[in-house]
Design a protein that fits this description.
alpha/beta, Rossmann fold, Dimethylsulfoxide Reductase, domain 2, Barwin-like endoglucanases, 6-stranded mixed barrel, 23 helices, 19% strand, globular, binds iron/sulfur cluster
Length: 672
């Protein structure tokens, strides 16, 4: 039997067939529909390998001393419900905090935020979008009125030029990168802006190897050069935008020679990039966490929006500002309201009208107090926050400054984790609830280009594991707010009734290639390109943004700059990929990339064990000496618990979006 599903890894959202024999998943095959078009990358091809892994959690666990004992679902859920009720009574609803999951379905994320808001009465709901694209949502909403990828994956192939900044696309979104490469082979020009020599650089007309944390200076200088050459789109600026004059005046302060001093990119290269992007008929800008994970994350995003507005590259095929979402359902988790300030469909929690509408639908009064972000929840543990429910996330590995996170989680009165495996965070929980994999449930995921796609249950849950939508419904009902759904399609019908961008979405309509929101009615075909006639906010808005250095810069004691990221073969904290034989066969060891000149100065050779230390901790791992990383910069992937990169990272955050600065902190390297 083969069952249609969606790859559980990246936001490209390739469909796949899950092959089932005798009730077990035995393999996957590519699916002709969806973004992958009959292809999968190595992670997709291996997506079945963790499903039956011997480490799967199959019974609820309750802490007993230093370990756990098995429990029934009734006992575990009664305990969780009683702890939440008690905390609510003693400390108030805002003492309870929820972390939703970019790996869970839309239906599950919707239920978790409904549980938080309607059953408990708090806006303390957030998820890992805080750590990857919260600055995108804030910045693009301010510039355009919508925080999502403006174009669809297919129409990238129509672009004449690309600027890819802060995205290692071919390793992180392989089957989307394939479209860029096809366009380049057809004649499109590619500019890569990245401190590292990433695989896509091979196809680039230009590689701008800027220092981490200098994106604004680089983009302002490109705009300076575009205006100097007269390549701005005056007609578009006049008809569709506002506040251009302020931007024009501001970028005069950023001649390419000035930006060269900040970015390390020669002025001539900046001018050449400006010429390529500014003179293209259709230029597409792609970015990811190299842009968003900075204390200037929102301003970095605004800067990308400025460049697209200046050149009229928005609202047409082959153009746009295209943030590439990392996790398979980080877009959907945001869409359905798993954010402290936004209700389903990006309706503002601070808006009394929106609260009234949702309150009527949910037959309750919604809380008006703003909720805590993920980073604020962790920092508030033991103080404002007494109880935390974490659904399928692993903050002990994924949040910055691991030692600090561990101390904070220890301060909680009660920690509940629903998980597939005993993650680092589950290990310190009071109750662990066994959840199911993508193959064991029905639901929907929303891909990076706003495409809602259906996954179908292929096998029965392992042991006593349950889907999160069932767990959340049971818990809510125990808390006195009944959430009873026969199956996830009923939950999607409810999402459609409360979130205008999903209004026309239903399971009946989600066969084939899915639907891209906004889908305002049951007859609407979906929206592949946003802002075609006018922006969601009316006129697109230019913003004046100034370069600001990272929170922590190299000094005598910590002379190098660390930047973190992922590798092609692993996913986030490795709970799934490090249980996949095919993937661990490729890479199964932590490493640090260091420039060959830095390595020579430090007496380090390729393959040596080295110690990397920051003001927050130190880790030991293997050196990969390369000429492909900018001098003065060190790169470490964050998948490996034996040398966790986040032991080193800085938890300084962007003031508005609260995204941490994973991409830049000062470190010292020595031979181990
Ligand atoms: Fe899965 Fe992304 Fe690879 Fe597609 S590109 S198979 S969605 S990991």
């Amino acid at each position: 039997m083969k069952v249609t599903s969606v790859c559980p890894y990246c936001g490209v959202g390739c469909l796949l067939y899950v092959h089932v024999r005798d009730g077990r998943v035995v393999g996957v095959l590519p699916h002709p529909k969806g973004p992958g078009e009959n292809r999968l990358c190595i992670k997709g091809w291996s997506a079945h390998e963790f499903v039956h892994h011997k480490d799967r959690l199959t019974r609820p666990l309750i802490r007993e001393g230093a370990g756990f004992r098995e429990a029934s679902w009734d006992e575990a859920l009664d305990l969780v419900a009683s702890k939440i009720s008690e905390a609510k009574q003693v400390y108030g609803a805002d003492s309870v905090a929820f972390l939703a999951s970019a790996k869970a379905t839309n239906e599950e994320n919707y239920l978790m935020q409904k549980l938080a808001r309607a059953a408990v009465g708090t806006n303390n709901i957030d998820h890992c979008a805080r750590l990857c694209h919260s600055s995108t949502v804030t910045g693009m909403s301010r510039a355009f009125g919508s925080g999502a990828m403006t174009n669809s994956q297919e129409d990238l192939e129509d672009a004449d030029a690309f600027l890819i900044i802060g995205s290692n696309t071919s390793e992180q979104h392989p089957l989307l990168a394939r479209r860029v490469i096809r366009a380049v082979k057809r004649g499109a020009k590619l500019i890569v802006a990245d401190p590292r020599d990433i695989p896509l650089t091979e196809y680039a007309a230009l590689h701008l190897q800027h220092r981490p944390g200098t994106d604004i200076a680089l983009l302002n200088a490109m705009m300076n050069a575009i205006i100097a050459e007269g390549l701005q789109d005056d007609a578009f600026i006049k008809a569709r935008t506002k506040d251009y004059e302020a931007l024009r005046e501001h970028v005069q302060k950023y001649p390419p020679e000035y930006a060269e001093g900040i970015t390390g990119v020669p002025a001539a290269k900046i001018r050449e990039a400006a010429h390529i992007y500014g003179s293209a008929e259709k230029a597409s800008l792609l970015f990811s966490m190299g842009i968003t994970q900075h204390i200037t994350g929102v301003n970095n995003v605004l800067s990308t929006a400025n460049l697209a507005l200046l050149t009229g590259n928005i609202g047409r095929r082959g153009t746009g500002v295209n943030p590439l979402r990392g996790q398979n359902n980080v877009q959907g988790a945001c869409d359905v309201g798993a954010l402290p300030d936004l209700l389903p469909g990006y309706q503002r929690a601070a808006d009394p009208e929106a609260r009234k509408r949702l309150g009527e639908a949910w037959k309750t009064t919604l809380p008006s107090e703003p909720g805590l972000t993920l980073t604020e929840k962790v920092n508030g543990a033991g103080d404002k926050v007494k109880i935390m429910f974490v659904m399928g996330e692993n903050p002990l590995m994924s949040d910055p400054d691991t030692n600090h996170v561990r101390k904070q989680l220890d301060k909680l009165d009660f920690l509940v984790v629903s998980e597939l495996f005993m993650s680092e965070t589950a290990e310190v929980a009071d109750v662990v609830l066994p959840a199911v994999s993508f193959a064991e449930k029905d639901g929907t995921f929303t891909a990076t280009d706003r495409r809602v796609q259906r996954l179908y249950k292929a096998i029965e849950p392992l042991g006593e594991a349950k889907p999160d939508w069932w767990i959340l419904g049971q818990l809510s009902t125990r808390l006195g707010y009944a959430m009873k759904y026969a199956d996830p399609s009923e939950i999607m019908d409810e999402i459609a009734s409360v979130a205008p961008i999903y209004r026309g979405v239903s399971y009946e309509r989600l066969g084939g290639d899915g639907l891209r929101w906004p889908v305002p009615s049951k007859e609407h075909p979906g929206t592949p390109i946003l802002h075609t006639e006018k922006f969601s906010r009316g006129l697109g808005k230019f913003h004046v943004v100034e370069h600001r250095p990272p929170a922590e810069e190299p000094d005598e004691e910590y002379p190098l700059l660390l930047t973190t990221g992922r590798v092609q073969f692993h996913w986030h904290t490795g709970t799934m990929t490090r249980r996949s034989p095919t993937l661990i066969d490729q890479v199964n060891e932590a490493f640090a990339e260091i420039n060959e000149r830095d390595a020579e100065r430090l007496g380090i050779h390729f393959g040596d064990m080295i110690m990397v230390a920051s003001r927050r901790g130190e880790i030991t791992l293997r050196a990969r000496v390369t000429g492909g990383i900018k001098e003065g910069v060190v790169f470490i992937p964050f998948h490996f618990s034996e040398a966790p990169a986040n032991m080193l990272t800085n938890n300084a955050v962007d003031a508005e979006s609260k995204i941490p600065e994973y991409k830049a902190c000062a470190v010292r390297v020595s031979r181990a």
